[in-house]
Amino acid sequence: MFTVRFLGGAKKSFSVDKLEIDKSDVSIADLLELLVSLKPGNTPNLDTENVLIAVNGADSSAIEGRKTMIKNGDVVSIIPVIHGGAFKKTMFAISKNTIQIMEIKGQKNIGVDFLDDLRNNFKKLKIQAISSTFVLNLSHLKKILSLSLIAEKEGILLSNKLETDVLMRFALTSQISDAITKTGIKPGKNFILIAIGDKKQLNLLSSKLLDHSVDMFSKDHSKFLQKQFEINNKQLNAVLSKSPLEDLLVEKAAVLF
């Protein structure tokens, strides 16, 4: 037997905070299929493609993704990542790189020096910050990071550093100064902190910043992004997918030179 906890909007799909599942040794993929079959018919659908799934507090994407096996006594948390926050950090893996993200509350005394200090204190980590308004959701963030990590592996980064490449792809510009101006840290504005490296160092970093963090992706920035990058409704309607804005943003980021 194991416990499934529902956080944020997931509670509305089941009208309860948790379920006790009388099974063990099932994968997360199997669990999601089971939850879809157990969901009451008169409640909102559970979007299984846009949820963060944690097993005993650890993001499953940093373990074995949807192949992660759930054991007897485990606690599985289901957290929607598009329609609200309810979590202050998450850790996941992309191409064997361990990545941690947190949303940091903007303060007047937090600027570029804040990022420089973190880099000096955590020299084994690659650290970058992106203005929260330029990140649509967790899926968008992961796809942009994947582009930068692939570019690094292939030796085709937009600049000489991975961290700068990430900044430029979120800003959709090949000009470094323009990317910094658009998506860099601004006093008083929330930002997403991205750190890549050793899990122990990542945990130390999150412990240091926990008091400054807020629930991630709690605001919808789609209108801002659509206006910022001049994406009209006709373009969105031409994309046959569940997330046309996300797909267009990633496509534009992929073809930067």
Word description of this protein:
- With 257 residues, the chain is of the alpha+beta class.
- It has two domains: 2-80, Beta-grasp domain (Ubiquitin-like (UB roll)), CATH 3.10.20.30; 89-254, CGI121/TPRKB (PF0523-like, 2-Layer Sandwich), CATH 3.30.2380.
- Helix content is 37%, strand content 21%.
- The strands form three sheets. The chain has a five-stranded mixed β-sheet. Strands 8, 9, 10, 11 and 12 form a five-stranded antiparallel β-sheet that branches.
- Helix 4 crosses helix 5, helix 4 (138-154) packs parallel to helix 10 (244-254) and helix 5 (162-171) crosses helix 10 (244-254).
- The model is unreliable at 82-86 (pLDDT under 50).
Overview features:
257 residues; alpha+beta; Ubiquitin-like (UB roll); PF0523-like; five-stranded mixed β-sheet; five-stranded antiparallel β-sheet; 12 strands; globular
